[in-house]
Specification:
By secondary structure, the protein is mostly beta strands. The protein contains 2 helices and 10 strands. The protein has helices at residues 33-36, 134-138; strands at 52-58, 80-82, 93-102, 110-115, 140-146, 152-154, 157-162, 167-169, 176-182, 194-202. The strands form 2 sheets. Strands 1, 3, 6, 7, 8 and 10 form a 6-stranded antiparallel sheet that branches. Strands 2-9-4-5 form a 4-stranded antiparallel sheet. Strand 6 (152-154) and strand 7 form a beta hairpin. 22% of the residues are buried.
């Protein structure tokens, strides 16, 4: 009693005889990645985050017919559109940098505002006092100020660069909308004096 007689060389107690498992079909305590996961399409224990850099330019048409052309609080250039801004409709973007150029050497103080949908309820015409509607204010996703003291002069041109802004902005579809206002009186020399370059990272 209490014993079992086994034929010699025919049984394994507490062992698995792997010779009885068909070769190449099984992995014990292992995962056969070569056959289970297609090569080049998967990352295990890793997250592959891809981002693209994109640059957009705004060239507001500005007023030069009055003196001063702009007074504090006036809108500049109306509603500006930065189209095809994101990697897919509804995806956010990260504003990384702004470079502004003033070929009239005037160094205007500016406030630049970003909206995820078209501003429609306020007063946004060029050279009129900017009035932002409450609904449009709810769609504002970013703001950057350029002070008069921020500008530098090179060869009779004013320029300014703001980096490391890092403002994450929601986008309702594929376009960001921009409003610019002046913070002090500004007499522009030409309708094309002002150019603003935006650097974004698509998320």
């Amino acid at each position: 009693l209490g014993s079992v007689t086994l034929n010699s060389s025919s049984s394994n107690i507490g062992d698995v005889d792997v010779l009885t498992i068909a070769a190449g079909d099984n992995n014990i305590g292992n995962v056969d990645l070569a056959s289970a996961i297609p090569a080049g399409t998967n990352n295990i224990g890793d997250v592959d985050v891809l981002t693209d850099q994109i640059g957009k330019t705004a060239n507001p048409t500005i007023t030069i017919s009055a003196t001063p052309d702009y007074t504090a609080g006036d809108g500049v250039g109306g509603i500006l559109s930065l189209t095809t801004i994101n990697s897919a409709s509804g995806r956010p973007v990260l504003l990384k940098s702004i470079v502004a150029k003033d070929s009239g050497n005037q160094a205007p103080a500016l406030t630049i505002m970003f909206f995820k949908a078209t501003p429609a309820g306020g007063t946004y015409t060029d050279n009129d006092a900017l009035v932002i509607d409450a609904t449009d204010m709810a769609d504002m996703v970013g703001v950057v100020r350029i002070l008069a003291a921020d500008w530098i002069t090179v060869a009779s041109n004013k320029m300014v660069s703001h980096g490391a802004i890092e403002q994450l902005m929601a986008v309702s579809a594929t376009t960001l909308f921009v409003l610019i206002s002046v913070d002090a009186a500004w007499n522009a020399g030409s309708t094309s004096d002002l150019t603003i370059e935006f650097g974004f990272e698509q998320k």
